Queue: 3 jobs
Job 1
Amino acid sequence: MIPIQMVDLKRQYSKIKEEVDKAVVDVMDNTSFINGSAVASFTSKLSAYLGIEHVIPCANGTDALQIAMMALDLQPGDEVITPSFTYIATTEVMALLRLKPVFVDVDPDTFNINADAIRKAITNKTKAIVPVHLYGQSANMEEIMQIANEFGLYVIEDNAQAIGATISFSDGSVHKTGTIGHFGCTSFFPSKNLGAFGDGGAIFTRDAALAEKAKMIANHGQSKRYYHDLVGCNSRLDSMQAAVLNVKIDYLDEYNEARQLAAAYYSKAFSENSRIQTPTIAKGNTHVFHQYTLKLNGVDRNELVNYLGGQKIPAMIYYPVPAHRQKMFSFLNLPEVNLPVTDWLTERVFSLPMHTELDQEQLEFITTHVLNFINK
Ligand SMILES: *Cc1c(COP(=O)(O)O)cnc(C)c1O
């Protein structure tokens, strides 16, 4: 059996090596390392893939979130409603900009931000909502947009884990995640569903003025060369990463399907077991399984991780500490937030290997050993 990894980038690369190598060598040959033609062509491919007019490439997903918040002119003290049950980058940039993250609870089945909790958290200082499409499925964007419209709030979608996922609204319209709010932000970190060979990110919007502003901020606030109208930063997708992504974006749907097949195998194998709750796909959603995350019920999670480790099966806890319990935020003097679902999930979630190269033999080995431990 091929050794099992959380993410097997080596085997994925081996299948497209010729194409990728050629694209990277082309960049080296024409030495257009910054803002080369690969960046322009990837940006327009991504824009076509998402069906959204404006795509601004940048250095990573964290920067994408920060630039979007800067482009919306969010000011110190402004409140931003967001889940605590997410990767730290979502909320870290709020602290960096001295915004006030208002952490709300998530839905115990989808792991995504709870719309009722958003409503309850709105004050006259609330300026924006930042939902995260965690593990690869959309948050309840129809209701989130309704709330945003009702209260005049901005929405920035953290789409780092869900590129290619869709959600259908009650009017039958189907939307790609990241294209619904005022801004969508994504990451091309190597292990993401669309991963580069290093760091990368992008911001999407339908709004031409916001796009222009985000583009300026990502480029030192520059309107024309050496004229700097806004305080910005230096955040670029480099040409070599764009060249890799230019090849890989053509495989994105195939990659997401491979993830869905692996997820279906897992979910079928665990379907009869009362101590394992398999992922719930909300009605109208397609899930692209950035992670395959189970909830364990009455199982010693550490022991399970150790047991699987002994069989050379990796497993991870995403995430062991929710944002509102991170020391990073202590300086903000957040009032005691009470997020029972987030805390409950933090104790129970458990993620199995998930990538595009899992084969039947590996999946059978993993599920057999998980069930061996659970049923012992
Ligand atoms: C990966 C990730 C990010 C940050 O992306 P980087 O490219 O690593 O900066 C932000 N939010 C979520 C939910 C992520 O998973």
Note: The chain has a mean pLDDT of 96.
Job 2
Amino acid sequence: MNEKKHYLFSYGTLQLEKVQIENYGRLLIGQKDTLFGYKLDKLKITDIEVLKISDKEFHPIAVKTYSPNDVVEGTIFEITEEELIETDKYEVSDYKRVLETFASGKKAWVYVAKLDKSFSTIANNIKQVHNRINNACLKSGRNKNEIKLLLATKTVGCDRIKEAFVSGETLIAENKVQEIKQKFDCLQEFNHEQHFIGHLQTNKVKEILKYNINCIQSLDRMSLAEKLHNQLRLENRTIDIFIQVNTSNEESKFGIAPEEAVNFTKQVAKFNTLKIKGLMTIGLFSSDGDKVRQCFKRLKSIQKEIIAAQIPNVEMKELSMGMSGDLEIAIEEGATIIRIGTAIFGERQYPDSYYWNENRTID
Ligand SMILES: *Cc1c(COP(=O)(O)O)cnc(C)c1O
């Protein structure tokens, strides 16, 4: 029989032999594993049927926090498709089943809280992120005033961005000129600063400069520097610039190669309309914190090299690195700006590849 297998992670009663027998009529075989970015809450069970089987009034429920410091321990079991369908009936309506990647690298289904519960509002999420910033600062002996929180607002509508402004945030960034344009009018009532963190096509340079962008964090090639300079000179103005470095060496990401960064900075510094203020990078996507940390260390060491080179027209105070999943590591390694989307606004509908490597044509 060609029965499809599924992996299912349990952090609760499904680990009890009694519950396995009740549900599947057999004992399950499993391996211990760990889920990052969630923490356990208690859910009061009212479903009589479920109560009868497990005898427990409170069930643990995993709530997504996005913090790598929050972990849930449990067991990944191998079950059949039929058994998975059975399990869906057993889990009560406060849960939803999602596919997650675990510490072992295995992908498995897991039942988690439908809502991000205690983290449901944007204001709460922002508070949570500030707590994470404070904790990371405490751990690394830094002053929290050294770190700016930038909200990555791609795909987020005006109303929700305004909620963040009401909570006291003032720094946002977009990845696409089109989205800046769409949201421009409705955000005007709030004082704020806007950066650009996406891949900027040279044919969009003229357009983006219409929208009061304070800083372009994603300068990643000479043709873009030239185009920006020419347009800014016509308009008789300057703009702040970060140089984007591809510290993870991934084909799929934009940015200057680390070994070319110093030289590139020297070249860009010749354009007097471009005020170089620092560096930006996107860390490696990995659950291996050490590998992510190497990316941030690399950016810090490039910053030092550039400072040592004493290039005229270059300031190197800012390091923009760290996102929802790795902000703690980034702060420990010297970030001055962290860019947070998901941990504040929730999951996005589009994969990040849609924003980060479009079709990889360099105009
Ligand atoms: C979307 C985005 C972020 C934020 O990522 P999250 O993981 O959602 O916090 C940061 N930097 C860049 C360049 C982005 O495109």
Note: The chain has 13 helices and 15 strands.
Job 3
Amino acid sequence: METKFPLTGWSSVAIHGGHQKDPRHAHLTPIYAGSTYVFDTAEQGMNRFTGKEPGYIYARFGSPTITEAADKIAALETFGLNIPAKAILHASGMGALTTLFLSNLKAGEKILTHFSLYGGTEELIHRVLKDLNIETVITDLHDLNNAEAILKNDPSIRMVYLETPANPTLQCIDLEGLIGLAKKYGKKVACDNTFATPYLQQPFAFGADFIMHSTTKFLNGHGTAISGVLIGTDVEFMSTIVTKKHRLLGANANPFDAFLLTQGIKTLEVRMERHCHNAMEVANFLDTHTAVAKVNYTGLSHHPDQAIANKQMRHPGAMMSFELKKGMSGGMEFLNRLQMCVRAVSLGTCDTLLSHPASTTHFGVSKEEREKYGITDGLIRLSVGMESIQDILHDLDQALSTQ
Ligand SMILES: *Cc1c(COP(=O)(O)O)cnc(C)c1O
């Protein structure tokens, strides 16, 4: 970035942050699709490999298109905080998580986390890390006394892993309280900030060491690509251990997806304002509907975590879930009747996306197990889009009319 004055506004950083002037005067950083970079001399090759001279080497390690997206996200996650951070773009959110865990934990060490994480994260913990003898302690992290007792008594816990707000109940974890405790006992803290985005919540402000995003979601914003990011405040650690793991695991992002991500991030503030405004209207509508048993949204005063969300988030976000009284058949019938809103998993796109976890993502999980995580038969998950609000409400209303 080559501005002569500091950028003071969030969207100015979202638009200009991370950008480097193109040597051929292209307005947007081009998609650098080639696999390798040229050394002018043998000595230059040596100097790039030893780090004496900056410069690109091989596209699995990085390229200008990828650097721009990563640097923009680092600038947003540290906006107004005056702390350093380095971001590394990955092939997906899962790729970023894999690098996070394998850079920080070895056999015999443990993660402390809470119920109801993103499904892929839960499977990574149970199906991959467990086989590497990296165990996970799962507990209710709302209870800070309970969390402190565990942290105090189990020295093999190396990392506290948080997802807030979390799928599908929009449970929130008190970042200030929990990170404070983790630091007291010398643990590292990582936070999945996908649902909130850096516009709504900055875990680094509370002392988190790492943030990850599935940039596939709100940061891209248009459902056009898959990618993920890992950001850390220990720049030295990020530049050495984490960079090495990222390269060796082959979790590199591709330049086409990075280009789309960069363009998407530029409008994040205006998109989130619209998403959140629409979400509040949708939550109020569903909350008084006779077919709906319960709405999980922290913008509603009956959500148990409203105070925590208000403390650490700018707005309650655009994700919510609600329970239909008619259960499994009600959930499927409702989805089938939707006309404009889209039946799909994923989230954070311009259009409103709805899914029915009990018949799709969690079909293979026993009813008893599902209900432990709040996934009842009639639960619908909703990513509220940016369409004109009257059309979203109209579609939901007509789809609910047979319930
Ligand atoms: C989608 C998602 C992930 C995984 O990201 P991918 O880009 O699909 O690999 C992780 N955490 C949350 C909260 C997500 O929504």
Note: The chain has a mean pLDDT of 96.
